[in-house]
Amino acid sequence: MDRKDRRPQPSSAARRIATGLALLALPVSALAGVKVFESDGHTLELGMRLQSRLEYETAFPTPSGTTDARRDFLIRRARIKGNGKMQGVSYGFEWKIDGTDQASSTPGSLPSTPAAQIENAWFQYPLKGAALELKLGLYDQPFSRDRLTSDSQQLAVDRSEVSNVPDALGLADNAFGFHFLGRTKDSRVQYAVGLFDNRLIAADRQDSPMLVGRLDLNLESTKDIYQDAHFGGTDKWCSIGVNGSFQGGIENGAAADDSSHAALGVDAMIDRPFGRQRVFVKGELMAVRTEFHNSPRQNNSTVKMIGAGVLFQDKLQPFIRFDQVRSDALAPRGGDRDVTYAGANYYMRGHRLKVQGDLRFQSGTSEAVDGFRLQAQMDF
Fold first, then answer.
1. Is residue 87 part of a domain?
2. What is the DSSP code (8-state) at residue 203?
3. How far apart are CA 223 and CA 253, in angstroms?
4. For strand 277-292 and strand 175-183, is the pairing parallel, antiparallel, or unpaired?
5. Where in the sequence is the domain holding 149, given as residue range(s)?
6. Residue 241 to residue 266: CA distance in whole angstroms
7. CA gap 366, 202 in Å, rounded
8. Following DSSP, what letter does each residue of 112-163 receive, concatenated?
9. How far apart are CA 270 and CA 329, in angstroms?
10. How many CA atoms lie within 13 A of 171 on its CB side?
């Protein structure tokens, strides 16, 4: 036996430790979507999302009353994601550094410095199979198809006004809370109902949490219902959803009941093959109300969205989307804002690797084109 054969062989435990250290030394992009840990009923997978963007937007009026174009290169979203299971309990989390833009909302002011934040950090416990589960943590409330569709799987470069308007009141974006959810055996019917804290309202001003609920009816395929393009095959999708949100007992600085927020919406999606192409159509209608208890004043908003795209050979998807907001908060009171987006998506590996671009046309301005966005995305 030579000298090499007489060397002690590493134990299986030592090999696992060495493998783990080697994995930790790899760049995050190499770990994306890879299962990096599995032991005793505990699994961990890591992924990432990166969106690089170039955009031109109509700037705010200058002191002379004219408008100008604002150009920016930015990393719109940069996230490290993790998910897995431990003893049958699912979990997920994201670390994000979003909005690394140079341009700010106020011309001449310095941009804010982006900071790392935690998002979509949750546990999901199975209580009675698929019929009843409990989810809790920090995540998007079960409200609005547009909000529940990941920012990485949208038809246009970003979400529509049916997400932005209720987001301004904290009615849809990431919130702390819990909800019960479940589905029938064939997944045709899905439900969710729960309670959340509004992060836009100070904790000592919320006497009661937000009540949020949603009901989905899936008439055809029940997989991957929250994405704005499906690829390959002959599957057909037809989904209808209704959702609502209410929060009362919001206090003012004098600790007296001051206001309440309420929202109600309905949405639908259809995606089906048409020859060698796929046709996708979605729409959403939402009503949002802020009621002030100590005065007869109310802020009512109605938001509409309809979008459509045609996917050619799982590669190119030209699309158009129309957003409309009618709100007491717009001048003149009860005014409206209409915005149309037209663009295209080019897919190289579905939603995991794609290039998107769109043009924005907004009513009531003197500009022929009010904005342009071009974005490259990698998502694992």
1. yes
2. G
3. 47
4. unpaired
5. 29-379
6. 6
7. 40
8. PPP--EEEEEEEEEEEETBTEEEEEEEE--S--HHHHS-TTS-SSSS--HHH
9. 33
10. 27
- Tell me the average confidence (pLDDT) per consecutive run of 10 residues in the chain, 380 residues long: 45 50 38 69 92 84 60 90 94 88 60 80 95 96 94 94 87 90 96 93 87 97 94 93 93 78 96 94 96 79 97 97 91 86 96 96 87 94
Contact 342, 319 (CB under 8 A): yes
Q: 17 in a domain, yes or no?
A: no
- Tokens representing 292 are 């002030």
- Asked whether residue 334 is assigned to any structural domain, the reply reads yes
Q: How far apart are CA 178 and CA 360, in angstroms?
A: 37
Residue 109 lies in a domain: yes
Q: What residues have CB less than 8 Å from 54, skipping those under 6 apart?
A: 71, 72, 73, 373, 374, 375
CATH number at residue 315: 2.40.160.10
The tokens describing 108, both together, are 């001449």
